[in-house]
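User: My collaborator sent over this chain with a note saying "see what the structure looks like." That's all I know about it. Can you take a look?
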Amino acid sequence: MTQATQVQPVTNQTTSGLGHLDVEQVRQLADAAGRKIAPLWPLDSFVAVNPYLGLIDQSFTQASGYLGAIAGERTVMDHEWYAAQWRDGRLTREHIERAVEHLGRPVAVETVIDALESPGSRITPVPMLVEALDRPGAAPISIFVVDQISHFLAAHFDRGQAIWSAPDEDAALFTAWREYTLIDRSAQAAGLGKARRYLRDVPTDPIEAIAWAIETLKLPESVHADYLFAALKSINGWAAYCRYRQWGAELNGGRCDDLTDLLAVRLVWEALALEATDGSDAIRREWQREIERHHEAIAAAENEALIDEVMLTATEIAFRDPVVRHFRTADEGRDATAGRPPVQAAFCIDVRSEVFRRHLETSFPGAQTIGFAGFFGVPLAYSRLGESKCRTHTPVLLNPGVEVADRVEGNEDLATRREKRIGAGLSWKQFKLSAASCFTFVESAGLSYLPKLIGDTLGWHTPAPPPDEAGLTDEERAQVHPSLAGSPSLGQRTDMAEGILRGLGLTGDIAPIVVLAGHGSTTTNNPHRAGLDCGACAGQTGEVSARVAADLLNDPAIRPGLAERGIELPEDTRFVAALHDTTTDEVDLLDITEGSVERARLDELRQALVQAGDLTRLERLVTLREQPSDREAARKAANHRGRDWSEVRPEWGLAGNAAFIAAPRERTRDLDLGGRSFLHDYDWRQDEGFGVLNLILTAPLVVASWINLQYYGSTVDNERQGSGNKVLHNVVGGLVGVLEGNGGDLRVGLSMQSLHDGENWRHEPLRLSAFIEAPAKAIDEIIAGNETLQHLIDNRWITLLRIADDGEVQRRRAHGDWVAEAG
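Assistant: Without extra context I'll predict from the sequence alone. Here is the result:
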């Protein structure tokens, strides 16, 4: 993570030209506004992020009212969506009555029912001054300002896409923008020709520049905080990327000021536009009154948001009821004495794994499947072959604990050859796109590209390799193996192995074959491909995590130490790494050498994996409007979707996610969750000290809530929290993000094609319902020690429920109050 140039300290509390404004107060206002923005990870490590992350210290209703009044952002579906469920009978009066009760009876049931048949209030964001300055028949100033900032940032943050580097790429963001704008003449077309002249008088320090802009705009003090937040929201995508850079710097103990610099850029443009257009006092006064009206509208917006939240809560109750009834009636202990299973297979808790696990258990009677976060409890940083820097390969909430690097046996110069191949590819790209050859290249080489175009269209070609495999042949890739770096001691390796096994619940009756299955996806021409990979591996496949964990657990040197700690690994037990392709639903077993696993057992496992993949594909393809005639046709259809460069939805990803369950598998074995639940195996009786429970609640559960709320936000307001039409996406900055079209703000969240099939929503926007089987006291103590969990649960961003030993379910209200959950 590149650390931005630091803001120079200001020695005086006020500076000439800043009027009555206190510089430290401005700094605090800017910081507070920035921390309300959720981070946006770049495309190569695209991870789901809770778009409301900066507001979780407020209740759902308070945040809804604030976002509606200030940012014009919807946080629930329109009333017609709920009314349709009411008319279909999926939403009933009982559900609404219980929702009203859950929220402490803030409104009458009849008020909510009446609201179903009336449209919600129209919400608009706080107007930026540049919008008030727009004039009919003239180039829109408001569009120009966003485009100018966006084009500058795309060059400033470029990660290898641009042929020519920006000369000021190492300068602080505000400094670089100021120098760029002083020579940029594009403002003249928008009627802002005088802006460059006024910019010379703007303070060079970003904090002082913010203060100068506030003074120039004569912004009322009562709306300072609101307007700074609204200004960042007007360029939310780029603000989110800057917030990501700040997040990464702070996670590593550093500091990044890009977000404050960006706020200075946006506010300075407001003031420059006012001065360059000689904006009248009448326009400014009306604009000021409009801002104050939005500020005063927050309370009224919260009142309406209460009714909306009742509707949302009612739909969540309707979803939960069948699950609660199942837990109440399921026989949890029926297989308690089943003994040693023939195979145990651990999958990521990803909702797509739930479908495959269910079919694998059907295809291989006696097999036991396990759900655990895809990094398998090894928070690692991974250095690919030939790379000098490590990449985080663990949930973004955690810092890596170990380093892993690729090693090659018998081919020591492979790293050099790989680097040359990748470099040659980049040189060829530069030749194609350079100013000297880009036009003649098309005429000279156009026909030679015809076979490739045909192959791409018909899905004959092999999809572009993921970054881990780029520059390597299949044979060479087989020679590369990720391994622990730094030669950790035997005690350290034993500690890691114990953590993995206890996390997986593998402390007794361990099978002869234990599969550790990471997951990834196959997709072509998809900038957001990383979003279909493993969220627990920072938007990468889980292959490296699975291979490293399997190597560690197969090490005979650790077994005596594990035995001393009460974990006996049978002599015939072998751990096998695997990779589950969630697009094709094929599972590849990795690193199996001759004689390492008994052939008969291995053949039986492979046959079961093929059959489970067939059943899973048939279930999933129906939702993608495919009608395969048989299993072979389904396999071809799934593979074609991953190879087709025009396919807008190779798979549905995590669409539909609505629940998180951490309990013994026997609680859910007979329950078809429809690929809607993150399924984490957990038995609190084996968790002495509740260390595993602490890990589940503070990492996988929080990550699941991020995924859930990203899908939620992208659905309820795709314009502001989603990325629109993916057909129009253009990658900027190499791997920074996408624009929709050739201008505008950087887009965040998910595209409509990931949520909607063209006729109906494929994602039902519900907040996460988290079911945990553990003692209430243990859960409460972990929540009390974690502020993020307190915000998520007490402020109703997720619903936490506890499964008792007898299957009864309790719901946690704010501050540790548990009540029985009807169902």
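A starting point for your reply to your collaborator: The longest strand covers residues 513-520.
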